[in-house]
Amino acid sequence: MKANYLLILFLFLSAFGYAQSFDVGGVVKEAGSGLPIPGVNVQIKNTSNGTATDIDGRFSIKGLSSGTTLVFSYLGFKNLEYNVLSSSSTLSIALQEDSKELNEVIVIGYGSQKKREVTGAVSVVDSKTLEILKPVKIEQALQGTVSGVNVTTTSGAPGAALDIRIRGIATNGENRPTTIIDGYIGELGLLNPNDVESITVLKDAQAAIYGTIGANGIILVTTKTGKKNSKAKISYNTYTGFQETSRTLPMLNATEYALLLNESYANGGKKIPFSNVSGLGKGTDWQKEIFSKSVPIINHDISFSGGSDKITYSVSGSHLDQEGIIGKSKSGFLRNTARVSLGADITEKLKVKTNVIYTYLNRKSLNEGGLGSVLFNALNTPSTLKPFDANGDFTKVPTTTGLGIEIINPLAQIDNTYNDYNFKKISGNFGLDYKLFKAFTISSSIGFNTSNSESKSFAKQILYWTNPSDKVFDVLRSSVSQNAINDNDYSFDLFGTYAKKIGANHNVTATVGNTIYKQFGNGLFATGYDVPYNSWEFADISLTKGLSATVPVSSYNYDERRLSYFGRAQYDYKGKYLFSAMIRRDASTKFGPGNKVGYFPSFTGGWVVSDEGFFGEDKVVNFMKMRASYGTLGNDQIPNNGYISQLGGEATYVFDGILVQGLAIGQTPNPNLKWEEAQKFDVGLDLKLFNNKVSVVVDYFIDTRADLLIPFIPVSGINGTAAPGAGAPTINAGTVRNSGLEFSIDYKHSFSDKFSMSTAYNVTFLKNEVLAVDNGTGFIEGGSFGVGQQSPSRMEVGKPIGYFFGYKTDGLFQNQAEVSAHPSQLSLGAEASPGDLRIVDTNGDGIINPNDRTNIGDPIPTATMGFNLQMNYQNFDFAVYTFASVGNDMVRNYERNLTDVNRLNYVLDRWTGEGSTNSTPRVTTSATGNSTFSSYFVEDASYLRIQNMQLGYSLDPKYSEKVGITKVRLYAGVNNLYTFTKYKGFDPGASNGAPIGGGIDYGFYPIPRTYLLGLNINF
Known about the structure:
Residues 1-21 form the signal peptide. Keywords: Cell outer membrane, Membrane, Receptor, Signal, TonB box, Transmembrane, Transmembrane beta strand, Transport. Residues 114-218 form the TonB-dependent receptor plug domain. By secondary structure, the chain is mainly β. Among the domains are: 19-98, Immunoglobulin-like (Sandwich); 416-566, no CATH class. It contains 8 helices and 51 strands. 43% of the residues are buried.
């Protein structure tokens, strides 16, 4: 019996001991909005043990005993202590935002700053937003989420480049902002979006610390790292989906086309081509033929992260495979990435870190835009033609019926396109911080990029009509071109930071350092002729034996360097009065002696009004900060060696009666080249209202760009600028000013334990004006329209950069009396007739000629805006992101001016007699001036786009954690759901990226609509 009592006592003590050791988990949220907070430090009080919350705010700690106190801490929120009594329920912790501190840390370049102390125009996109948007390229996440930033597509094809503009287009040269990834210059579009922790956009003089590379703004990317004192975490994310075109254009079917063509021929006094149209039906829908449906896209992403009290680590890899909606695998894109991030506290004073990223890309592409593109051919090929002939071969588009020599069967064009592009890049940095003494830290970092690319394209011997050279696309001799390019750069940063609190009220931070940057590389290009078997499988130069009349090889190499010194002083008094001053000295090899060095100072200041005693305890306004900045930044983003003369051109010389290939002067030199300067002014207001539920940010800015570095200024041909390899000079020749207003507001609130919501709206109003063009003519032309016409875009004083310059129309002539009463339009190519466009005599001289051309449109939007909404109800989450552009015009230039091409169905409302219409001119085979560039071809391209919509469901952790899974989330989403616009073309938001001529639609490859189904799992 005694033994039984001992057994019972043993079991009781064991049970009691077991009861005192249990696991605790839960979620940490914002008290106001109910939104989860990632990265919260969860510490066992008076110990070094603890963990951190994951991206969904969840945490788990094992082996706690009853009465243990957990301390929850996060920058910008008040610390919270929680006494754990049992493990009976999942904890729900609500942290109160510390509105008096606003301690969220923002990266500002060569350091960081608390959000409340930032005095510049700075915007941040966090990883939560990236997770919802699921961008294929990370640039897409900036559209509509950051005021003052506009992202345009050059093509909807997989892997195509995206253009980012911060606060408008400021120069005719390089306008893209510089991307800094963890301290080194990188390329935003190559990153795996799931590797990014945050994106910080510096829009004003705050970017002056980067001097010469900051004129167009700075995008700072911070990648994910492991958290200290956190257990190993595995995160797996995947999505799969399918794509389809987001838009097709309403073209004429076969019957409509035949009837229209008969009318056109009859109006031109010619025999009608279709004597019987009754059996034609709808014919071929060429867009349906080239656009594929259910085109696959798949992405996998896995990461491992964690850390101890001394070491943090994060390792990740991703795989993206996307086919194109035109040509499928022939316009496919594949991206693989691998990343390693390590940090270690070697001693209490010395810390080291490294971040290395490897990227592999493979891309195949089609002719995507402009004259001769696949879309161009699909829109212009008559619907009466069939895709295949009776033998199953591709139908050939004739040249003898008014279809010209450019238009070919788009399916044949896809089938006969062969190319391949491979790109490999490794980039990263190695850095260390050494605390020399308590207030002074020395930091150094070596950043690097090294990339290699290889491309190959094959021109198959083929005739697209019956006789040689009937079509411009005919290939009489097969060839293969192969290129190999190697690009490298490295940077070395060394700077010291002194941070000191003087007395109780004064805080001083000073940073001084220097940067060494070098970029170098080379390229090799070669072409071989007569490919064996006229086949892609044998398309390799080593197999070609054909000889060429010209030199089929070329190469280049380059080397450029910058040496920079910088300093910054930051001061605040009681956290209320904020001031910083920066200066940077840059020396660049882009400029010649006497102009190499530039100095770029800037100043910022702020006043936290809500900290003043007179402000009181306002319950409506919880925080108010006024700020201002002014500074000068530089730009040297131009081709190398523009200030000297080099033998980079090709020339043919005669020696002893024999033609000899030789060299000639390349780009015309300009020894007076100097820095382009950006003078940036900004005043702003930051507010937090209604218990910090509402945040408002307002900025007014003026960005004046002086001494523009404008490349390829037209000069006399006597200089040999038209020779192969030669080029016009780059000069400092202009001034452009962008001014505008940015406004953003967001609201976060938790209505109950089950339902929370956050919403945000931002709008940017922008005015662009050219103040000077000092090139001798007073304007610079760009872009193209039709064939053989004058340039449709200009940069000119008093107008926005790239405005459309052409004839203004005033409806249609309705009768001969109106024609006779109007000045002659013979200079347009033919005298006008009733039903033709009426050109306005803008200068009133009674003559219609090129002097009547005027401003007929502006490609720059008056306003851009984004509206975003997120809601959480129990385990469900929903998000929608939109973007709108208002006031931007676009030129319709994807229609060929030939008599027999197909047309959009708006021509069904054409002029057919007096009073029938006053908008769309008559159709005829006779010569008219209707195809001359005029306001008839300029359309309002304003639009509203639903960029992303996503619905998700997260499994209750109390079920998933039983099998060791901390998070399981399923979601379904749609990217690029719908675009509301009156514009007739494929994409009102597309641009070829050129500052002059960027708003001309040559037939842009449309952005695909993508349906996604995804899964997120954390272990």
